[in-house]
Amino acid sequence: MSDINDNNDPVAYLGPEASYTHQAALSLFPTRPNTLQPLPSIPSLFTALTSTHTTAVVPLENSSNGSVLPTLDALAVLSPQVTIVGDTYLPVQHALLARPLADGSTPAVGDVKRVYSHPQAWGQCTLFLEGKLGHATRVDTDSTSAAARKVAEADPGSGVAALASGLAGAMYGLVPVERKCADRGDNETRFLVLRRRRRTGHAGTTTTTTTTTTAIPAEGGATKKTLLHFRVSPHVPGALADALAVFKRYGLSLTSFYTRPDPEPPTRTETQTEAERGRGGWRYIFFVEFEAPGGVDIGPAVEELRGKTTGLRVCGSWKRSS
After folding, report:
1. Which residues touch 23 (CB under 8 Å, ≥6 apart)?
2. Burial call 237-259: b when 16+ CB within 10 Å, e when fewer
3. Which tens digit of pLDDT belongs to each residue from 146-197?
4. What PROSITE patterns is this protein classified in (predicted)?
């Protein structure tokens, strides 16, 4: 596992500037601000990561609103091509931001008719939105800073506002209508540092790999995190329980568990079987994150898990940041 700062390649992040992902990227790469490059959406980050960029910072989950689904869905498909090399946590405090009125005063909450923000922000500010902005229309944007930029382009007094960071407000010339809108004062988001997987070719050249290996080196000292995903047969009673029992048997601590619809279509045989059972032919993919003490080789546990599941892929293994 290499250090995330071991090269000077461009680092993609969910932009525009002043987004929370930008702030996380700055905290991770404080000596390399000029290498940070904003992209407009999470899917575009993964597209860049598998083609033009070697590193990207993406949001994974929030303490108030749970997992960021576009990130999980991209990892479900692209984990053979990318790997997680680190993570970081960032405090998140949303403000309601608007353009100053023509006389320089600040609009009132009651004047706001339309609010722009990223879908994650809605879930983090439920009490504020329902209590003070139930009358306003909500419009999704690709990031909170994109919402701030959208409001900055509107006419003063047009009744539009954004849920975004104070930094985004300052960058786009907005003023805070309300400074603290999150339901929880300890609201924070976890971000992943992703890197394109690479392998050495026969001629010594470096190319993007298309396979996921189980070779994860054991390192002394810091606790190690690992995120992987797999599938189990819905027709085998206790299949998921048998898979999860592997972690206990090897003394590995589960820290998170996510379920998403399987992005890969079922085979014709599976579809026919499900139809005979009177149910839809879709399946689930299970994401599991766990921790192991420094120096512990998790390879045997992963290999045993592979024997109890299908399509197992290791998304990454890295030193715990906190």
Report:
1. 90, 165, 167
2. eebbeebbebbeebebeeeeebe
3. 999 999 999 999 999 999 999 999 999 999 999 999 999 999 999 999 999 8
4. PREPHENATE_DEHYDR_1, PREPHENATE_DEHYDR_3
Can you give the pTM of this predicted structure?
Answer: 0.85
Q: Residue length, the chain?
A: 322
**What is the percent of the chain with per-residue pLDDT over 70, rounded to a whole number?**
85
Phi and psi torsions of 300, nearest 5°: -60, -40
